[in-house]
Design a protein that fits this description.
CATH class: Alpha Beta
Strand order of the largest sheet: 6-5-2-7-8-12-11
CATH topology: Rossmann fold
Bound molecules: S-adenosylmethionine
Largest sheet: 7 strands, mixed
CATH superfamily: Vaccinia Virus protein VP39
Number of domains: 1
Shape: globular
Number of strands: 12
Order of helices and strands: EHEEEHEHEHEHEHHHEEHEEH
Distance between the termini: 29 Å
Helix content: 25-40%
Length: 275
């Protein structure tokens, strides 16, 4: 089944460590909050459960396997994976009773099946990882998590995908279906105003592409002001071996303690993640 596994670089190993470090602290803290009845781990883009390290050539645990290894255990594990072979591999990983594997699009599965099991008013909480390859998930998923108040998220903003396919110097030449992907991710077309400034020279008015940092800052503002997450630390830029930012790792939560822990973990890696 190795053919279903990704070969991953150093930056992915760092991301996995960050998520694991946070999930360990989260599980411990929630265990001590006795009024909480159920704590779920949700992986929206769960993958195959393992990867092959580019550095060592060895098999390394993916995010679902790491979540399953954490003590105290979560009340339930929800793994969503689009790819049938990967979903099948995940099926074999956990005790049937507390693991549900959904083969499908997390944009539908999370909203219809998983998030309704994580309601604040039912004294339930969830840690949700949204770790796609490209501009995904739809904003509706993120906004729903924020509004529910019971779900905290880690989310990759795939800025390299955005820059390669949508945020071109000349926005007029971008294919409509690519712009549409950005709109689905962002929630509306206000990304355009965040990604371009209007400049003027002696002869004309023209649009100038804004730097990554401005786009990401605008998305962070949406997480707070539109989705209603109280705490969204500055995201962590994750780079490839050439030093280019592939994605920004966001954390968003309603909880001051969770925020403190995430900021502490991010601080450890800021400045050298992925190199
Ligand atoms: C970056 S990998 C996930 C890695 C995993 N979180 C880990 O750290 O071990 C992204 C996964 O999302 C899956 N995927 C892509 N689109 C999806 C969607 N709309 N819903 C659910 N899974 C999706 C891909 O098949 C792939 O396995």
């Amino acid at each position: 089944m190795k053919e279903h596994l990704d070969v991953v670089g150093h930056w992915t190993e760092i991301k996995l460590q960050i998520l694991q470090d946070y999930a360990v602290a989260y599980a411990q803290i929630l265990q001590n909050q006795h009024f909480i009845k159920h704590v779920a781990y949700v992986d929206g883009f769960a993958g195959a459960g393992a990867h092959i390290s580019k550095q060592s050539g060895k098999l390394i645990a993916g995010s679902p396997a790491r979540a399953l290894s954490i003590q105290p255990r979560f009340s339930h594990y929800h793994f969503v994976e689009m790819d049938a072979a990967r979903a099948k591999r995940l099926q074999g990983m956990g005790d049937e009773k507390d693991v549900t594997v959904y083969q499908g699009d997390c944009n539908e599965v999370l909203l219809k099946e998983v998030f309704p099991q994580c309601r604040y008013e039912d004294y339930r909480r969830a840690l949700c990882l949204l770790d796609p390859y490209e501009l995904n998930p739809n904003w509706e998923v993120v906004e729903t998590a924020g509004r529910m108040r019971s779900i905290e998220i880690f989310l990759n903003f795939m800025i390299m995908d955005a820059n390669m396919n949508v945020l071109w110097k000349n926005p007029d030449s971008v294919a409509p279906d690519q712009a549409q992907r950005m709109t689905k991710f962002w929630g509306d077309d206000s990304w355009h105003a965040a990604a371009y400034t209007t400049e003027q020279d002696l002869f004309r008015t023209f649009e100038q592409k804004a730097p990554n940092e401005s786009v990401v800052a605008a998305y962070r503002k949406r997480l707070k002001e539109v989705a209603g997450f109280k705490y969204v630390p500055e995201p962590l830029p994750m780079c490839n071996t050439r030093g280019a930012v592939v994605y920004y790792l966001f954390f968003a939560s309603q909880n001051p303690t969770g925020n403190k822990i995430a900021e502490h973990i991010f601080k450890k890696y800021r400045g050298h993640a992925g190199r």
